Amino acid sequence: MLHIGEFSALTGLTVKALRHYDEQGLLGPARVDETSGHRFYAPRQIRDALTILALREADVPLPLIARVLGSPGDVGALEEQRDRVLRERRRHDAAFDAVLQAFDAPAGEIVLARREEPEQAFLGYPLAADPHAGVAEDGDTREGDTRSEDARDDDASDPFARAGVDVSDSHWVSTRVRDQETHDVTLCWPVPEAAAPDDLPGFISGVLPARTELFVTRGTDAAGLQDLGWYAEALTRLVEALAAEQRPHRDGFLMRYQVSPTGADSWDIDLSVVL
Question: What is this structure's pTM?
Fold first, then answer.
């Protein structure tokens, strides 16, 4: 038997960590001296300790580690966790690339313009957890969808088609600031009329009323979709121009970021605020 200090030295797990894993039911001592309270570990526990150490280095949560230790042959959960970590790493890499690009390249020419837009029906999916999320611009409300993103993608194509939506076509992200603490973010597609089908749970339908917008637009390739420098400068200019208008916003501040494909690897980006 190995006392806790020896076991700690051999496995790389601190004494504090070993006590914590014991409290969590993850790795308890093989024996505890009833008189002194000293903890002793068996040599056969070294493998579990090293497994815990390696998985914690990979930021695997403790409940999943417990599952792995309980079923050593079940590697499916580990593979799923690794896939999640790799997706997160790609997201982090994209964020770093966007910031570095913004430092290296100028934002380019940004020209603000004004336009009159007719009313537009839309089908939307709320993206932000907010007291007002799920409420469309016309007040229509639907229940939230608790399924995973993959599950929604797997079964959404036919209902989208029945709603008159091509998910690869033009779409926008609508951000409406309600007050000092709440805002809604909704992914929207234009549709002929405001009617969300019953087989698209969690979606909302509504109508953007006829409106006057300040906008900036540009054509870009895939890399430009992540151009933080252009987006930051364009948004700054729009907000400054909106402030200069000094108009009251009865329904809150509304911004739209619209992406429209123009070719196999080209898009038009349109950033606008409603006056």
Answer: 0.55
